[in-house]
Amino acid sequence: MESTIDWGGPEGMLFVARTGSGHVTAMDGAPDGGGNNLAPRPMEMLLTGAGGCAAYDVVLILKRGRHVVTGCQAKLTAERAATDPKVFTKIHFAFTVTGKGLPTAAVERAVQLSHEKYCSASAMLAKTADITHSVTVVEA
C-alpha cells in the first residue's frame, strides 16, 4: 500500500494525496493554521477512514450472513488530547443499519466483530482512544 502527498504551494496548506490504487483526495488546514479550508483536515480523514473501514466490515459480515441490508451509516464523534501530539482520546461509532427483518443481535455482533477482529483502522486508533459504539436498526 502506498500514498503520495504533494503540497499545493506557498499560498496555503492544501495537500493532494494520490493513492496506490489510483485515487486522488485533498486535505487542507484551517485559516488559523495557514490553510484555506478547501478540504477536510488530515485528522478528519483519519477518523473518516476508521468509519469507512468499520462500516465496510459491518455490511460485509451481515451480507455474508445472508441478511438483507439496504443501508448502513456510521457517524463518528471524537475527542482529542489538548496537547501535542493531539491524538484521539475518545471515539464513538454510532451505527444506523437499515434492512428487512434485520435482527438487532446480528448487527451488534457484526459491529463487535469489526471492532475486535477485522477493522485495522480502529485497532490502531484504540491504542490511544477509548472506542465505544451504539447500534440502531431500522426496518426497510
Task: Break the fold down into its secondary structure elements and pairings.
Elements: E1 3-7, E2 15-19, E3 24-27, H1 42-64, E4 68-80, E5 88-100, H2 104-118, H3 120-125, E6 130-139
Describe this structure in words.
This protein has 140 residues and is of the alpha+beta class. It is 31% helix and 36% strand. The protein is built from 3 helices and 6 strands. The strands form 2 sheets. It has a 3-stranded antiparallel beta sheet, with no helix packed on it. The radius of gyration is 17 Å and the shape is elongated. The termini are far apart. The relative contact order is 0.15.
Features:
single chain; 140 residues; alpha+beta; three-stranded antiparallel sheet; three-stranded mixed sheet; elongated
Low-pLDDT sequence parts:
none
Query: How would you describe the shape?
Result: elongated
**Widest sheet, order of strands:** 1-2-3
Distance, first to last CA: 37 Å
Q: Which structural category do the helix and sheet elements fall into?
A: alpha+beta
Instruction: Compute the number of helices.
Output: 3
* Rg estimate, integer Å: 17 Å
Oligomer state equals: single chain
The residue fraction in helices comes out at 25-40%
The run of helices and strands is EEEHEEHHE
Q: Mind describing the biggest β-sheet?
A: 3 strands, antiparallel
The total strand number stands at: 6
Mean pLDDT: 97
Q: What proportion strand?
A: 35-45%
What is the structure about, briefly put?
It is built from 3 helices and 6 strands, in the order βββαββααβ. The protein is of the alpha+beta class.
